[in-house]
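Forgive a beginner's question, but would it be possible to get any protein sequence you like and the tokens describing how it folds?
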Amino acid sequence: MNQENIYQYAEKELKKDADFFRIQSVSAQNKGIQEGVNYLTTTFKQLGASEVKVYSEYRNPVVYAFFKGHSDKTLLFYNHYDVQPEDPIDEWETDPFEPTYKDDKVYARGICDDKGEIVSRLAAVRYYQENGGLPCNVKFMIEGEEEIGSPNIDKYVQDATADLACDALIWEGGGMDEDNNFQIIAGTKGITSFDVDVNTATSDAHSSLAAYLDNAAWRLVQGLASLYGPDRQINVEHFYDGIAHLSDYTQKQIDTLEQHFDTETIIDTFGVTNGKLPVKKPFYAVMNEPTMTINGLSAGYEGAGVKTVIPRYAKAKLDCRLVPGQDPEKIAYYIQEQLKHNGFGDLQVHFNLSEDAHRTPLETEFVQQNYKLAQELFGNKVALIPNQPGAGPMRAFYNHLQVPIVGFGIHYSGSTPHAPNENIRISDFKQGTYYLVNLVQKFAEE
């Protein structure tokens, strides 16, 4: 396939779908959801889909589409049309919902996560529809709740299992790593999200009474600190139980990538100054170490000026990124039990949501097909990744479909998803689309 022709085609399609990026489909704020659904259903019909369905039984709808190909083999694409809120708006250098071109980059909320990936896949389908038809069957399942933890995706997949039958699944995205290697990703980490709060009185008190009155803020931070050591060790009994053993091949891949893992690029991207941790093997940690993170803290008076009070109530939001073998809901239970054991039984854990980790073994034929094709196209600038650092509902799909799952895509290490100035590089978009067009052909043939 002519690389330059596909590159030109991909760039044209990126501009053609600019209206998709203008839709403010923010699931956390319940905005623009129907507009996102309408855009996708209209686009699929215009592309000649044999079947388009909207599943809407649970909350935000899921859009399904089926395109008939020349072979009986079937690829399924999973994506999501919802995006994160644009806040903090004052840190954006452009209008977050107006795609803005600067040099080789395009800025817009959701252009990396995950609308740009959808547009790349639509471009590949449109390319084949205009050039003899798709080599294999292609299906899409695009949800609208991924950015709030995909609370209904398991039920949607279960209800649509017959429609979603396939030979392999392409996950929502991927892209270039810090060293500009094209990534083939075979899994996701899991997550459990929870709040911890504590009450020490029925009202705030004057801070002069701190000599003998407890303080909910101190109580909370001391309790949380009892769970986490300076060596990054999470001091919760049973927290590390059940972690799946890495195969020799997977460990070898991690060891190889460890040598080239560029933490400094990531540190520079986020302007980190005093937030660096002493980690001997950072890539291994990202791949196969669970974490515990305080996402936010709130207590007492937080407005302008001075108000000298002892807070009666304090609250924190936390998440744990988990690896295969860990049960997210049990992790929240273990944390509550550990707080009791540490003398902080008054701190209450409130479970929010969870997703299980999942990995397709790197030795799997479909994973190797993706990896070898990337090497054929891009030489040694390819990285085979056991799992992405973030979470996603991959396990829900595997439980119902029992097929290999692989991710790749169009973002890069400076795309800043979920943060201000989210962007992609046009060169990566073209490269990712070119790879996808080739993969569809290779998949159909083999």
